Amino acid sequence: MQKPIELVVKGKTLRGMYHYPDGDGIYPTVILFHGFTGNKLEPHRIFLKLSRRLTASGLAVIRFDFSGSGESDGDFEEMTFSSEVFEAQEILKFVSYLPTTDAERIGLVGLSMGGAVASIIAGNNPSTVKALVLWAAADIDTIMGIYRQQEKKGYFLRNEHGQIDIGGLWLNENFYADLGKWNTYETLQAYQGPALILHGTGDEVVPPTTAEQYQAALGGRARLIYIPEADHTFNRHAWEEQVLTETTKFLTNTLF
């Protein structure tokens, strides 16, 4: 079953979807964090597909749009990495207090920049988060490197406020300065639970070697699976199937 849910953070309503097994109960619960310019569905509805698989396996799932994305309040130009981390922390708190959540069995899944957010949340809440899955997770250096390359090539158009036009969305003029406050690898080291890392060898956005750095930060507690030739968001049925299968198996085995 599924139903829409809402959470107000700093006056903005975040809109999401709550998936849960049929019948009353208290369930292990997984939170999904979408990527930069993404939303709670993500490409080819992969977040929805994962939610349905996990629910069929007896887990509950919650997936929100961050503010300024999808159906949530706010404008994209207000978003920073820090704002998403803050909202993710509020989402974790919200989920842990739900009467249908087994607060001792909460997992996180993050895609791309959502993976960086998930890493920060896991590192800051090591006693709460019991499972972590990173899909093509970006890190701070990668995000800033992409920006610098594109800026050097003159790809960016700016408005009078210094905001950057990225495909019709204005990016906060302080976005990259804000990134400099964070270190995903350093924060993640505090997380002591199991983790699964999935990354395509053909990822054109986040270098596949980034996955190895995340694995190193986890001190060997993470299993790393490379998806041969897969792109950044696993845009082929076979790639998607492997990601969904491995993620479902890992979370089911870890949270039950």
TrEMBL record:
<dbReference type="InterPro" id="IPR029058">
    <property type="entry name" value="AB_hydrolase_fold"/>
</dbReference>
<dbReference type="GO" id="GO:0052689">
    <property type="term" value="F:carboxylic ester hydrolase activity"/>
</dbReference>
<protein>
    <submittedName>
        <fullName>Alpha/beta fold hydrolase</fullName>
    </submittedName>
</protein>
<keyword id="KW-0378">Hydrolase</keyword>
<dbReference type="InterPro" id="IPR001375">
    <property type="entry name" value="Peptidase_S9_cat"/>
</dbReference>
<dbReference type="GO" id="GO:0008236">
    <property type="term" value="F:serine-type peptidase activity"/>
</dbReference>
<dbReference type="InterPro" id="IPR000073">
    <property type="entry name" value="AB_hydrolase_1"/>
</dbReference>
<dbReference type="Pfam" id="PF00326">
    <property type="entry name" value="Peptidase_S9"/>
</dbReference>
<dbReference type="GO" id="GO:0006508">
    <property type="term" value="P:proteolysis"/>
</dbReference>
<dbReference type="InterPro" id="IPR053145">
    <property type="entry name" value="AB_hydrolase_Est10"/>
</dbReference>
<feature type="domain" description="Peptidase S9 prolyl oligopeptidase catalytic">
    <location>
        <begin position="54"/>
        <end position="254"/>
    </location>
</feature>
